[in-house]
Amino acid sequence: MISVAPARDLSGPIDSHCHLQSLPPDERERALDDARERGVRGFLVPAIRLAEADEILALCHRHPDVWCALGVHPHDAASWQPGDRERLRSLLADPKAVAVGECGLDFYYDHAPREAQFRALREQWELAVELDLPVVVHNRDSNEEMLGVVREEAFRDLRADFHSFAGGRAMAEELLAHGFSLGLSGMITFPKADNVREVIPILPADRCLVETDTPYLAPIPYRGKPNRPAYVVEIARRLAEETGESYAEVCRRTGEGFFRLFRKAAE
Ligand SMILES: [Zn+2]
Hints:
The chain is of the alpha/beta class and 267 residues long. Helices cover 36% and strands 14% of the residues. The protein is globular, with a radius of gyration of 17 Å.
């Protein structure tokens, strides 16, 4: 039997990384409405810690166009406990939880001991492989260590979005060779960010996502202000300028890439 995925409106971009839970509760609905008015067609909300999961899931269940990733950010890795793998497994059974994350390494801030960061990362990735869910990855000042984990045999079948990618061309090439997707944030609009834009020409059409990373990293012309999902429009526009495609084409193919990686969102 052939199963046909529901037709999706990809006429506007999808914000593949927005921390709506970090906005005051009374601003979340407005931020979504503002974004929809500007044509934004979907939202992925990544958790920072497991304690947020119920609140994030409730938000997702109120909105057909909002999905989430559930997991523990490297800043919070010291909170990862022996029972958390099972707790996360049961949370991920929710149809709105389409990925594990955000998880990763951050040796810039080092908010958690590195040993704890590695432990939380590996346990979450193992669970993702077991459940055949993609991971949303945060990586800062830890390229070599991250590639070391990526190369481990246990993660051969991992599917991943390296969000707000700023790791440079060599790192991008290796991640793309593993079949991963890279997320482009407002950094691609910053005048001095040639080192971020340099990966754009090597990104396969369907493995390039756009994201705001709300409430951080607002794109030009909103730089320095709190970021909002509506501004993903600016990022898709800039991407279109860089590649010479139309805005509509960028929205269509990054949207297809989104549903290809985050399969559960297409069900
Ligand atoms: Zn994030």
